[in-house]
Amino acid sequence: MPLSPRVPDLAALDLLLTVIELGSLGRAAAAHGISQPSASSRISYLEKLVGMPVLERTTLGSRPTRAGSLIAEWARGVVRAAEQLDAGIDTLRAERDSHLRVAASQTIAEYLFPAWLMKLRATAPGTAIALESGNSVEVAKEVLDNKAAIGFIEGPQNFRGLQSHVVAHDHLIVVVAPTHRWARRGSVTLTELAETPLIQRETGSGTRNWFEHAVSRKLTGWKPEVALELSSTTAIKTAAASDVGPAVLSSLAVAAEIAAGTLVSPKVTDLELERTLRAVWPTGQRLTGPARELYTIARAG
């Protein structure tokens, strides 16, 4: 869905935040490396887009209007997300000549790694990182083949030749469309869940392996049924929201959809779906340099 043409651009929002922080349009212009007339023009265009003043100009400086304060509060999350996007793009650009190669399963790569990367850049600004994402089996292979110095996986299995250490915890949850009978009921039993074909990731996915492992421990001899197999979390969320069937995903991956009401998470009785997220690297080796820094950041959350 395209954005409204009335949405201000990132440069204008970032400038507004700096004006509010410094209390002066001139000082904000200098901080952004532009002239004061250019900064004034940028703010004027922002005001034209939103249809109201965002700053009050006085002889003592500039301060936000009520509307400006609200817009600034909303803009902070947008600018922060843009900074994470910028950090992620820098990682991709550095792939060919990086100092550290990292492999991470999809949930970790999409929902945790950007924040870890921001912290690593703050403590080690000269570190360039290349990230390769895939399922947990693919991540393990990248590390075993020495294509990545450290990996982050979601699956429950251990891999020969790799040591693993817990860095975080996560919950798997069942998600369905708001029109699904489980959404109306608010809960689902373990037996009913186990008998229902689900939308799943491909074989080797940490999320799928962990869920199947958890159910198998409760129901001896259980054989999973797959309604639809998709290779990305985004595709699974779209299918579940369209009421193709239930899915089991990380709570990190569906937080926005649950908040928006496009997906509903019924409570599962008699099944614990908390899982551990682990860092892996070759057995007998010690992490050093940026790999050690990244591991420390991941453990600290």
UniProtKB/TrEMBL annotation:
GO-annotated molecular function: DNA-binding transcription factor activity; transcription cis-regulatory region binding
Lineage: Bacteria, Bacillati, Actinomycetota, Actinomycetes, Mycobacteriales
Organism, scientific name: Nocardia colli
Domain annotation HTH lysR-type: ranges: 8-65
UniProt keywords, alphabetically: DNA-binding, Transcription, Transcription regulation
Protein name: LysR family transcriptional regulator
Family indicated by similarity: Belongs to the LysR transcriptional regulatory family.
PANTHER family assigned to the protein according to its UniProt record, in alphabetical order: HTH-TYPE TRANSCRIPTIONAL REGULATOR, HTH-TYPE TRANSCRIPTIONAL REGULATOR CYSL
Matches recorded under SUPFAM superfamilies: Periplasmic binding protein-like II (SSF53850), Winged helix' DNA-binding domain (SSF46785)
One Pfam family named in its UniProt record: HTH_1
Keyword Transcription among record annotations: yes
